[in-house]
Amino acid sequence: STTPFQFEMSEPPDEQIELLRDALRYAEHYLGTLDQRNVYPNSEALDALDEFDEPLPIEPSQPSDTLAMLHRVGGPGTVAQVGGRYFGFVNGGALPVGTAARVLADVWDQNTAHFVMSPLAARLEAVCERWMAQLLGFPQETAAGFVTGTTLANVSGLAAGRNEILRRKGWDVSESGLYGAPPIPVIVGQGAHAAVRKSLALLGMGDTHTQVIPVDDQGRMIASKIPKIEEGTLVVAQAGNVNSGAFDPVGEICDRVHANSGWVHVDGAFGLWAAALPSLEEHVKGIDRADSWAVDAHKTLNVPYDCGIVLCRDRAALERAFRASAEYFQWSNEREPMRYTPSMSKRARSIELWAVLKTLGREGVVTLIEQLCSHAQNFASQLHERGFAIHNDIVFNQVLVSCDSDKETQRTLAAIQDMGDCWCGASTWHGRSVIRVSVCSWATTSEDIDRSVQSFCAARKIARTSN
Fold first, then answer.
1. For the whole model, what pTM was predicted?
2. How do residues 266-320 score in pLDDT, each as one tens digit?
3. Dihedral, CA of residue 402, residue 413, residue 214 and residue 269, to nearest 10
4. CA distance 140 to 166
5. Which of 110, 345, 403, 462 has the most crowded Cβ, counting Cβ within 10 A?
6. How far is CA 309 from CA 248, 256, 303, 344, in A?
7. What angle do CA 74, 147, 83 make, to 5 degrees?
8. In what order do the strands lie in the sheet with 292-296?
9. 228, burial (CB in 10 Å: exposed 0-12, middle 13-18, buried 19+)
């Protein structure tokens, strides 16, 4: 007899196909009810998740029953970030073509360490690498590695920079490690993301050797405050401040750093995509002169999670950072994906990224990002008209909002999150409590903005009456 996990492969795998049909039906129900449900799960849905907390089953279950439970119990417990009224954590949505391509990629279950493991995925990585350079205006020889997210993309770009700086000083990290290596001066802005600090720490470049540069009122690094650059300095600039969305003056920073054989890495999780827009050219001037960049396709570009990308103008430097060999490796004359990331085995992220870029084209990418920026401006304008304070220049997709006092802001946000019409997060900006609005989803409409503004106003009323 067969178990629930075995299929008669001499005939079509009917059971597997039926499971996929079940999943499609559940997905159809989920998407069809998004507008009627809370953006964040209510207390009943959260309590229901306790049903998952059971001992490890002894006996096998029917796969269809497992999937049904996941839909019945798990679906209501999800955060509806694929809808149009989720504005938290710059999470982005998922374009339908990306989701559909992801399903195909999951069915194919490709491992992309070597070309020989998945010629398709490796070839699409090469195509996406070339398209990304063209889209962002980077040198055509730019190399790309496809990783989980910007944290690992930052680790990758900074590893390439660290190793290259040391190589120029006659030190090979792969052979000698960091024991006794020449110190590398590191410079970051005061508004650097936590992922940058985490990446530097993982690479053995902690706070002691990191100099923090003051920023202006929008969170941009003040280039004139950078002291005399020592030879071989590693500087991390930012494209899209996590709160304000502002951009560091990367071109000016590159001029100073490159004059002293340094390396400029750009943390551009959601903001690097601005380089694709002629209308935002002034904000990203000179960004193409950096040495490495980190970006998430699952944020602004709305590729399904997870899809981070490291880009490096020096292909050899990126390859040297992840050099590895073993008797069983099988190299080819094609582009080998594992040469460009810390991971060896990894899923085929290039499939859904290619699908989104192919479908949108340059004009579609520009339209998508301009739409996000326009919605952010509309959001800010409507809130300002209704007496909310806006704390940042709306240069991209971020809006920082507050009420008359920190206490009222915090209570208003709590009410917004509890009401469920939309979801935003909290932050602190220049010592003030603020509500952080991140407009990231292709699915957001003008009606979603109007509805969310109404929620803000209703929540503020609740906050004021609760005093």
1. 0.96
2. 999 999 999 999 999 999 999 999 999 999 999 999 999 999 999 999 999 999 9
3. -120
4. 25
5. 403
6. 20, 26, 12, 15
7. 40
8. 143-147, 308-312, 292-296, 263-267, 234-238, 186-189, 210-213
9. exposed
